[in-house]
Known about the structure:
Elements: H1 5-25, H2 31-42, H3 44-47, H4 51-80, H5 86-103, H6 105-116, H7 128-144, H8 148-173
Family: Belongs to the mitochondrial carrier (TC 2.A.29) family.
Keywords: Membrane, Repeat, Transmembrane, Transmembrane helix, Transport
Main location: membrane
Amino acid sequence: MTTPPHQVACLIRVPSEVVKQRAQVSPSSSTFQVLSNTLYQEGIQGLYRGYKSTVLREIPFSLVQFPLWESLKDLWSWKQGHVVDSWQSATCGAFAGGFAAAVTTPLDVAKTRIMLAKAGSSNASGNVLSALHSVWRSQGLPGLFAGVVPRMTAISLGGFIFLGTYDKTRRLLL
């Protein structure tokens, strides 16, 4: 059985995300200090805290983004009577990415809480439902969607660049 691409990508993404987020909440510490402290206090497992929650976020994100991107391209193609250009595909990618980002923000919030939790705390256990419940109890719906606008903005830009570039490259190669 092969390993799904999301799991492989997360092997690299999660440690860098853990260090980045911890550095953001500890501005007096350098990136190297955050990395060293994490390894010293928690071992290699500390760098992979949030791995499962990241994979659990990535799967629904992709299940929303890619079919929506394809559907938007099909709709635009149908409306104009010919296949979309690469810039139009990129625009569809931006909308699809932004929408997928919005609907998966609660999972991103849970992942962040898990990654930033103090070792030994309930959130550090990595239970996504428990983290979501904790946010819901303390902050309600606004807490579950904390950071939704910057997340949508960044992922929309990424969707525009990456999916537009993918489409252009695919056309050049075919």
